[in-house]
Amino acid sequence: MSKKFKFIPYNCGAGASLSGCEMGPTVLKETVFSNNLWEEFYYNTEHDKSLETQQSSKERIRVIEDYCKKIVNDVEKAINDGYTPVTIGGDHSIAIGSVAGLAKAKKSSRRTGLLWVDAHLDGHTIETSPSKAIHGMPVAHLLGYGFDELVNIIDNVPVISPEHLCLIGGRSFEEGEIRLYRKLGVKLFLMDDIKRMGIKNVVDEALKIVTKGTQCHFLSIDTDAFDPDIAPAVGSPESGGINKNDMITMLEKLRDANFDAIEIAEYNPKMGKNDGMTRELIKDIWTILSKNKI
Known about the structure:
The chain has 294 residues and is α/β, with parallel strands linked by helices. It has helices at 24-31, 47-50, 58-80, 94-106, 138-143, 148-151, 175-184, 191-197, 199-211, 244-256, 275-290, and strands spanning 5-10, 84-89, 112-117, 165-170, 187-190, 216-222, 261-265. The protein has one domain: Arginase, Chain A. It has 11 helices and 7 strands. Strands 1-2-7-6-3-4-5 form a 7-stranded parallel β-sheet, sandwiched between helices. Helix 7 links the parallel strand 4 (165-170) and strand 5. The model has no long low-confidence stretch (mean pLDDT 93).
């Protein structure tokens, strides 16, 4: 029986350092996912104003909280209606809401497996972040570290446990993130590990972690995980990323793992000389993960 999918937009860039990600869902709906499976778009009138303030300002936090609570409700509704939710960013602060939404729907807080594919580790707190941008903090918030408004997005407990979290593709990070993950025992497969072990072995090991002792499973993909040669229009491009062949191999294995919810974040139409290349990559990602041709 094939899955039914529901696309849920996060047209918010308040967590990012640069504007543009908030346009991602609209552009993708018009050019890639032009069908009737989208949830209604939600626009917060404070959004543009918030982008003019400092990265971790109360205004930005309030906007992100507002959008993430909407995402929680949309994800929960999609699951209850029999759909597999596919949340589309927007910046990666989307995950605070989307992972929490899955945990709420499945009543699985601290038993939700999370596989995070990203060039960055997104494990900063306000104390460790050089940029103070919240899109570098969503994993920390899901683990229970950060602003109370975002940590407690559904309950007064962390959404995920460290033993059920695995990150793939990291190559740009700071010592503060590494210290937190080492303290918690979170497993990281950096780009050096992918080159040493091969992508198949990395994915196999990652899936063991996110499925052991968990009730449901979430796949979050930041488009900057992939090399800028194939994904130039992303919020924070970093050289030396996952190449096209490894991407295909990885996604085919992840597709067969049957995740309960999927996320694609940080597509930025304003970045890169050819954002059409990144749109095509996202189309390829979706085609593989869904077994559907667009």
